[in-house]
Amino acid sequence: MIRIIGICLALMITGCSNLPESVSYGPEVSENSRLLVDQYHIGVDDQVQVNVWRHPDLSITVPVRPDGKISVPLVGEVLAGGKTPTEVSEDITQKLTKFIRDPQVAVILVELRSHEFLSRVRVTGAVRAPRSLNFRQGMTILDVVLEAGGLNEFAAGNSTKLFRKINGKIESIDIDMFDILNDGDMRTNIAIEPGDIISVPERTF
């Protein structure tokens, strides 16, 4: 589980340009960090905090339920799963206008619990122990295949494919796994990215 160290740090106050000056990003939160969290799509079990300025009785901290929704006082059910914090903030703001004049809402990511699952790296097919692994910075194709026990006796190692989401599309990258393991040829031993899937086919006889 990834804890956002201070994402309470000033934390991704979204949809709240009208908040008082006392509520702001701290100088330690970079512009890139703000943009990254603003673009993050909330997932099931992520912990979110909803703050309604001047209405502490309406402010809550809750996990996103399996149906992707959260329950907000006065508003009721709000869909959070699959949306950015800004989009959820806008939805809540719109619904609160029926009860409060000019509501100002901040949706804050407290814990990104779903991110760990989305970031996992998976290796399937003709390896000794197909598995799903936590992504670690610096991992390569070789690291992941070794974690899976290496190729089994039926593997067509040089027909291995790496599947990666690039610009919204799944692309396949050819990997010469046999050459990596047996000849030390590291030309296709590329760095792993979160969400990658390695597929090792079996030989055809």
Give a structural overview.
This protein has 205 residues and is α+β, with helices and mostly antiparallel strands. It has 2 domains: 2-117, wza like fold (2-Layer Sandwich), CATH 3.30.1950; 119-200, Roll (Outer membrane lipoprotein wza fold like), CATH 3.10.560. 20% of the residues lie in helices and 26% in strands. The chain has 5 helices and 11 strands, in the order E-H-E-E-E-E-H-E-H-E-E-H-E-E-H-E. The chain has helices at 31-39, 85-96, 113-118, 141-147, 177-183, and strands spanning 2-3, 47-52, 60-63, 69-72, 76-79, 105-112, 121-125, 131-133, 160-166, 169-175, 197-200. The strands form 3 sheets. It has a 5-stranded mixed beta sheet, with helices on one face. A 4-stranded antiparallel beta sheet has the order 1-6-2-3. Strands 4-5 form a two-stranded antiparallel ribbon. A hairpin with a 7-residue loop joins strand 2 (47-52) and strand 3 (60-63). The longest helix is centred in the middle third of the chain and has 12 residues, at 85-96. It is rod-shaped and about 70 Å long. Mean pLDDT is 82; it is low at 1-33.
Write the layout of secondary structure elements.
Layout: E1 2-3, H1 31-39, E2 47-52, E3 60-63, E4 69-72, E5 76-79, H2 85-96, E6 105-112, H3 113-118, E7 121-125, E8 131-133, H4 141-147, E9 160-166, E10 169-175, H5 177-183, E11 197-200
Parallel strand pairs: 7-11
Antiparallel strand pairs: 1-6, 2-3, 2-6, 4-5, 7-8, 9-10, 9-11
